[in-house]
Amino acid sequence: MIKRALKNINLLHSFECAARHQSYSKAAAELCISQAAVSQQMRQLEENLTIQLFLRKGKSMLLTQQGKTLLSGTQQAFKVLEESINKITVEEIAGSLTISSTQAFTTLWLMPKLSKFSALYPDINIRVMSSPQFEDLKEQHIDLAIRFGPRVKENTDTSLNCEYFGEDPVYPVCSAALAKSINFKAPKDLLKTWLVSLDNPGCYDWPSWFEYTNTQGYQNHQQWTEVHSTDMALNAVLNGHGFTLAARYLIIEQLKSGQLVMPVNIPHPNVVKRYFVYDENSAKIARLNIFIQWLTQEMNSTN
Amino acid sequence: MIKRALKNINLLHSFECAARHQSYSKAAAELCISQAAVSQQMRQLEENLTIQLFLRKGKSMLLTQQGKTLLSGTQQAFKVLEESINKITVEEIAGSLTISSTQAFTTLWLMPKLSKFSALYPDINIRVMSSPQFEDLKEQHIDLAIRFGPRVKENTDTSLNCEYFGEDPVYPVCSAALAKSINFKAPKDLLKTWLVSLDNPGCYDWPSWFEYTNTQGYQNHQQWTEVHSTDMALNAVLNGHGFTLAARYLIIEQLKSGQLVMPVNIPHPNVVKRYFVYDENSAKIARLNIFIQWLTQEMNSTN
DNA sequence: TACCACTATAAGCTGTGCTTATAATATGAG
DNA sequence: CTCATATTATAAGCACAGCTTATAGTGGTA
């Protein structure tokens, strides 16, 4: 009896779920298997134990007294197991985290604010990697990737968490000095100066903005400057070199100080969505959650 | 991490065993699987948890600190599970038991002694069934079968326990009165009277005894009486009707009281081996163990 | 009665969990 | 040092456990 039941403890795991929900289909959803599988597992378990655990009442499966006893026991046992596994696999809060994101984000947002995080959590060391691509988290030993774009979710491996944490519009921006020397009132006025674009802009490209604003003749524009990342583009623009397209969160401070302006205040048709990508089963999950929480709050308070 | 580990708790069961033994091959023996399976399971578990649980030291697998922590946790959790399952599946000592055995045993041994058992354990009800065959325990709702013969083990389903509990010689016996009226000194003298045989004697038949004793002419013997069970045979014999072959444990009391005698004290070549047949996973195991223990002691004390 | 939201069951498929065979490893003895 | 031994590790193969889909069955409600 006991030997038979302990031969397949996984049935007990499914049992705990079905018993808690008093519903096979809810258990199925939680366990990510089909209702039929749950039903068959429960039948198997009842056969193994030669007792009845559930009583069907309409749409739900009420527990027999024996079922209730077993629920209590399984919950206690799995709690012990969970805590035990936690203890050996989950690292303490103190330790290191490796963060990967775009060069623009790391340079313009993260590095300037990192001292705030470190002041709050001096026991957490942050290592920052910038990359324009979606690298493999496991291969590169990355704990958290902060990614931007419209297809992050689709391009993220299903074994990883992909958490949306906000979005920003993209605007054409130039230096205040340039805006004083040239009268920029309409989208077509931008064609009077240099336009700084990224070599890989994705969907946040100038042609899309010009199309969206119904601007003619941009195809004949000659003054293009191509750079590798938004921080480089902004560096050029801050020094009076035309316009670039930038997500608002990246330039909040420069807009406030008046270094950068948006004379043509029409956003790009594509917004920049932001995502955290990490493994929820990471041993560093406790540390990760702290960083993610901090970053989310920081982003919200500066937006 | 945790989710991954809890997806296959059976690995943790094997772990507890391997960790306790600090040996994969010992764990394999206990779990009745191959050493290679254990090795692969432990590798899988270490991968799932992304930690090292064992350190190989020659012929044994020492535990890492993490392995020790997990051993402690798994032992605790499985203890809780075991107790929980026990509580819902194992019946109390009080209750009923259904015992099946031959008619001879039930009539001649068990029924006369049952009051002794009931005096000791008034909360246990015994239901007795007699049958000459090996019935299916589960089908007939038999909790314990007491069986005799040379091939009980081979004829018992492997899912059941088959416990040998002793053996007895078989002798030709007759009434004291008959022994006084006819001089029985040698095996051939038995041919002067009726011989009571069973319709299904198995290997405990008269021809085997006569061959064993080198007795000539038994094939021409005309005074045969055929009955269905040993208790019927003994009933006839007690009333002066010739000889029958009987296992000693069945006639102990009648030998002591002088009702039956063994004038030719040569045992049958085949002894009667006794077995308990039951399901060790039975919910009534607690009760069964009590009965089995009592019967074993009772049999030993009267033999 | 019909409808609905669930559970139960049957049949089929595939990948998990074993097996066997053999390689690799650690240890001790000579 | 070599060799033997008793273990664990690994690879390849197989079959059946554990799922799936499809559909039947059930209980409750209007």
Automatic annotation (TrEMBL), chains A, B:
Q: Which domain of life is it from?
A: Bacteria
Q: Does the keyword Transcription apply?
A: yes
One Gene Ontology MF term: sequence-specific DNA binding
Q: What residue stretches are annotated with the HTH lysR-type domain?
A: 8-64
PANTHER family in the cross-refs: GLYCINE CLEAVAGE SYSTEM TRANSCRIPTIONAL ACTIVATOR, HTH-TYPE TRANSCRIPTIONAL REGULATOR
As for family, the record states: Belongs to the LysR transcriptional regulatory family.
Q: What is this protein called?
A: LysR family transcriptional regulator
